[in-house]
Structures are given as C-alpha cells and as structure tokens.
Amino acid sequence: MPGRARPEEQAAILERVLARIRAAAPHGVAVFDLDSTLLDNRPRQARILREYGASAGLPALAGLDPGHWTSWDLAEAMRLAGLPPEEVARHLLPARRFWAERFFTSAYCRDDEPLPGAPEFVRAAAEAGAVLVYLTGRPGRMRAGTLSVFRRCGLPLPLPEAGRVRLLMKPEAPLDDDEWKALAAGQVSALGEVVAAFDNEPAHVNAYAAAWPGALCVHLDTDHSPRPVEVAPRVPSIADFRR
Cα(27)–Cα(63) distance, rounded to whole angstroms? Predict the structure, then answer.
C-alpha cells in the first residue's frame, strides 16, 4: 500500500482536487464517502460499548472513549478500555449483538464527528463549482441522523432532486457495500464528469479509480475492513482534510 502523504503532500493533493473542480465547473462531480472518510464514527462506537457495559454491569467500559477504537475489532476496544481478557471472551458475542442493534441507526449516528478539515474542504469544493455527491453504505433509515450531523458540522446539505448536492444511501435491499457502490457509481457518472472521489475502503477507492480513470481518487488512511486489499499505486493516501 502506498504510504500516507506527509502534511505538505496532503495539502498539495487537496489543492489539486480543487483545481480540477474549478477547471470542470460547473459540471465536475466530487464524490465523498461518509464513515471514516468525512465523518469519524468512533464516538458512536464508544457510546454503544459504554451503554453495553452499563447494561451488563461492566464498570471497566464506563470510561471507554473514541481513542480505544484503533481498528474494526470490538474485542480490542474492550481490552484497551481495561476489561480483562476472560471478560472480553465472555461478553464479546452479546456485545456484538448489542452493537448491531444500534450502530446502523439515526439515533446513534448523531454522535459522529467530522474528520479534521472535512467541512471546510467540502464547502471549498462546492464554492469551486463541484456537484457534490455523498456516496455511503449507510442504509436509508439513517438519513435523519446523518443530516443532523451535516447541520451540526457545517457540511453542505443535500438539495431536492436535481440539486447540486446529493446524498446516495444504500437501499433497504440485500446488497453489500461493494455491490451498492458499484451500482451507485453508474448513477454518479450520469451527473457529469467525476473529477475526484474520496473513500477509506481500499476496494472502493480502487474501483472508483478504475471506473473514473480521469478522476483524482484519494484514499483516507483512517480505518477500513480487514480484507487484504492494497490501495492501487496511483491512488494517494491522506490522513484527513487539513490543508
């Protein structure tokens, strides 16, 4: 996997994106994933595990915070919060069930926070003339909570049909994220020339680079699924959206 860009390289990559948007305005399209790309869902994760700890009588989890989430491994977060290994093993399955009932809901996604620089960069992209597309694997039932985070964080809000800001959410159908994003890429292409796309998942950003060879596709080096997929060599990786 290519290394993460240094701060000065990151700033240059983001400026290149804005330059491409200006050159293609008003028809250029910029695509942004949400979880672990524009938004940090670790506060949501931490809240869920704290609530599980309270319900299960596990005081060690009361102090769990976003910093205890270093990967997609719920067991690791529990261990880092101070739960003994034998207790982690005993509670892992019920904690996963508790998590699954809450994670993909509007009530809990309201806790999400923006990655550093994300609202400012997305607003800059809009001001440069981009058609903005938020393309997420979140199901449609999370729309209200997602929009509440956009309002709180200052991210441009999706407009009515045919507007210049779109929110494409996964339909309530048996699609995994790979299938949904491949399907949605066709919808995005119909909106105009895709000039930039951002995603934290290597498989997704690689697919975007293949689908839109003229676009500057950028990997967010935050977290991603444990699948052994390497970021394509021509795709740069950045930490966040600070310029």
Answer: 48
Pairing type for strands 113-114 and 39-40 reads: antiparallel
- d(CA 32, CA 219) in angstroms, rounded, equals 11
Find the angle CA(38)-CA(44)-CA(50) to the nearest 5 degrees.
Answer: 155
Contact 122, 38 (CB under 8 A): yes
Q: Give the domain ranges of the chain.
A: 7-41+112-238, 42-108
Q: Which fold has domain 7-41+112-238?
A: Rossmann fold (3.40.50)
pTM over 0.90: yes
Could you give the count of Cα atoms lying within 13 Å of 192 in the half-sphere of its Cβ? 21
pLDDT in tens, 144-199: 999 999 999 999 999 776 689 999 999 977 789 999 999 999 999 999 999 999 99
Which are the contacts of 109, defined by CB distance < 8 A and separation ≥ 6?
41, 44, 138, 142, 145, 146, 149
